[in-house]
Write a structure and sequence with these properties.
The chain is mostly beta strands. The protein has 1 helix and 16 strands. The strands form 3 sheets. The chain has a 6-stranded antiparallel β-sheet with strand order 1-6-2-3-4-5, with no helix packed on it. A 5-stranded antiparallel β-sheet has the order 9-8-7-10-11. A 5-stranded antiparallel β-sheet has the order 14-13-12-15-16, with no helix packed on it.
Length: 186
């Protein structure tokens, strides 16, 4: 059993026989009352996103998951193809399991496959990934208050906002939880 105060974004727990992935976490405390933990979770079987609220002292069942390293190869109409880097065995994962992280996948990316009883239930990607910029808009200098940004298209066709000094061909780091620019890659 784990405390609900330990549930952060990316954690997986079991509740009433179902597995949930934590998407966001918020702790609130009202004057004299006990605190509440509000989390937004995704049911890993159905894909539904729901809100759950727990008292601060509550505990939930830790998920009996196994994490298996995998490398993303490509996708086609059948689904997403991955490879086990140890045995070089290729396997297929359905589109439903990869739907939320599909926009961040790029060929050769290393990730974890979460499974229960050898049945894949979710794909876990790194929190920060590096991408090469293939195209970026012009920088409009002048009437800027604060941090000015422009659109950039990454090697996996994802479009994000980057600072004006970033140019095409550079490699940047992106936070896959928020989809935002973090920094230039070193």
């Amino acid at each position: 059993m784990i405390s609900v105060t330990d549930l952060r974004s990316g954690a997986v727990f079991e509740d009433q026989g179902k597995y949930f992935l934590v998407l966001s976490y918020e702790h609130s405390k009202i004057a004299r009352g006990s605190g509440n933990v509000k989390i937004k979770v995704r049911n890993l079987e159905t894909g539904a996103t729901i809100d759950k609220t727990f008292n601060t002292g509550a505990r939930v069942q830790e998920a009996n998951l196994s994490r298996k390293k995998a490398q993303y190869l490509y996708n086609d109409p059948a689904g997403f193809h991955f490879m086990d880097p140890g045995t070089f065995e290729q396997f297929l994962v359905g589109r439903k399991l990869v739907a939320d992280v599909a926009k961040y996948l790029k060929e050769g990316a290393d990730l974890n496959l979460l499974s229960v009883d050898e049945k894949p239930i979710a794909v876990e990607i790194p929190k920060i990934m590096e991408y090469k910029i293939t195209q970026t808009g012009g920088s409009a200098r002048g009437n800027t208050v604060g941090a000015a940004q422009k659109d950039a298209v990454l090697e996996n066709n994802l479009t994000i906002k980057v600072p004006l000094f970033i140019k095409s061909g550079e490699v940047i780091r992106v936070d896959t939880r928020t989809g935002q620019y973090v920094e230039r890659a070193k």
